[in-house]
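DOMAIN: structural biology
WANTED: fold as tokens
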Amino acid sequence: MASITDFILKQTTSQASGINIPANLKNQVLSGLSNSIIGSITQTASQPSGFDQVKALLTGKTSAAASPITGLATNLFTSNIVSKLGLDSKLGGALTALIPSIMSKLSGFIKDQDGDGDVDINDIILSLKGGNAKSGSGLLGAATSILGGLLKK
């Protein structure tokens, strides 16, 4: 199983393939789109009741269109990439329109990984880790740190 970060990058690249992104900006734009989605998940997880919002999105209990995580990803991408790179409104709009679709692909990504009959923090961490991610790196490291800190409170 691929990690969620690999899954998001694959979805971003695939869904943006039909959009004419200037070659000199393509890597920055695609990375920015993926990082905005990942950032929205990790920022939400660090907030009170954020874990429940992340869990609802990743298990499919909340649609991507209705999730505040999707709105946050859109805001992050607009402010960190569209504005900073000076993308025109047509290109920026086409790219931000991909976010709900990419987020909807995350629905059901998290399943019961540890066989205890429910989706809990262990399942989310195992899914974030994927088959190849090393503990403590990337989104897994951030999530482990954030979620571990929340659980100690």
